[in-house]
Prior knowledge:
It is a single chain. By secondary structure, this protein is α+β, with helices and mostly antiparallel strands. Helices cover 24% and strands 17% of the residues. The chain is built from five helices and five strands, in the order αααβββααββ. It has a three-stranded antiparallel beta sheet with strand order 3-4-5. The protein is globular. The mean pLDDT is 92.
Amino acid sequence: MYRIRGYIYEGPTYSEKFHHLKHTLCPRCIADGSAAKTFGVEFADSGTMEDIDEKVMEEIAQRTPGFEAWQQEEWLTCCHDAAAFLGAAGVAELKSTFFDAIPAIEENWDGDWRDLEKDGQLTAYVFRCLHCRQYLAYVDQA
Length: 142
């Protein structure tokens, strides 16, 4: 059943049966799991997560809003748990909001972080560990 909530989720949806769900679901229905249960939909690919409890993988896939990346998105992990996704970033976002994430980008990518653009062909995806508070990041390109 559809209810008007005032907000619409615009991120990715993955469903074998319902391909029309993008721009139709409210964030509350994602968070409480009713969207996943009703439509058999997932919002993020938890298959790239390693050493993570199955319940955490289900929470990320079925009850957490996802994000779109140039290639297949990756949900990063740390301390045997899923990390918090903070956002996509280019050089402007790294300088203003995610400055402390620059070492994580430099450690995991051979390029120059000053070449990144939030909406460009080289984009950083920034995460933070819920336990040790370490920044994590990867770079994706078109």
